[in-house]
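ok so for the tutorial part 2 we go from a plain amino acid sequence to predicted structure tokens. step 1 is just haveing the sequence, like this:
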Amino acid sequence: MKVLKGQDILALGFMTFALFVGAGNIIFPPIVGLQAGPHVWMAALGFLVTAVGLPVITVIALARVGGAMDALSSPIGKIAGGALAAVCYLAVGPLFATPRTATVSFEVGLAPLTGDTPMALFLYSLVYFLVVFWVSLYPGRLLDTVGRFLAPLKIIALAVLGIAAFALPAGGIGEAEPAYAAAPFSQGFINGYLTMDTLGALVFGIVIVNAIRSRGVESPRLITRYAIIAGLIAGVGLALVYVSLFRLGSGSHAVAAGASNGAAVLHAYVQHTFGSLGSGFLAVLISLACLVTAVGLTCACAEYFAKVLPLSYRTLVIILAVFSLLVSNLGLTKLIQFSIPVLTAIYPPCIVLVALSFCKELWQSQGRVVAPVMLVSLVFGLIDALKGAGFADALPDVLSHLPLGDQGLAWLVPAVVTLVVAVVVDRAMGKRSEALA
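step 2 — the prediction. this is what the tokens look like for a chain of 437 residues:
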């Protein structure tokens, strides 16, 4: 029976970590650290729940069912499960996350050197997606190209930044923004959505499993074990990165007061700490982080849609790369504006799906419990999304003042209530039945 060597397991963990750590993971914690002020670690705790805990749990949940998202979503039926999978793949693929890797790496790393012009962005994104296309054509080599080469480079660069954040703080901690002073945990929790890591985990599950299989491992038990180990290694790495970036942001008040985003905080800190070499260092770090994530997303999306569309993997890689190139040239601001409401809506049902997958032995029928709870979480997630998109005034007054609504968690109480009712109904109906068709 084929097994992985210790160095292969470590490379798999590095690859998983590298797939997760994109630009969003690097730019969101510093702004949270800056704005949370003395409440930084409570905000960090909330952030770590959605940006580390949920992704690791999702990797484990997927590993238990063989890596495929459709196996995880089987309780809600093929049609609903297919729709959820398509939305997740498109969101973390060509619509938002993949183009964002190019725009963020350009605006944070290169724009300060070349100028933030449409032509500069186009030329950069053209070269960027040519590299993404080339590496994505060979998904079986991901463990070598990412796990053994690109991931260690990214880890070294992040380690330098993390150590500097603690050893060379730029100053003291400033005042907290009102939202963080009032509810630091929930603010951190919601900001963790923006990393898209849980959605990314749903997408990357099959990439991780295929990387294990590419080494000749066929045993489902071993595949699950190796995927769980890889997820835990990635989780530890993510937590260390986030903690150091929270520290960087909280100590940057003197050099980045009033910054509107994490990119500005990072740039101010690096320029202050590393001088003229700072911009070059940051450009390399961000570009590496984004490139690896873009490759993983492109591979995962192409593999998924090759199964549901009459197109080859190679053709889909070309389509995804070209589409992502075009979307990336809309600019970072528009991409973030569009993505926040969508993520606010689709995160709750994904969280419910992953959480309840660990409790399936407790129900008579998974479909009776999982489907209604996911539906309710989606409906109330849409309400949060409408509020986040600026349409709060158009909602009925009762929907504008739901429990935890001010924290962006209006879906939580209704989902828990629905879960209790669904479990009672499931027990009353008795005999276990098949999942929805």
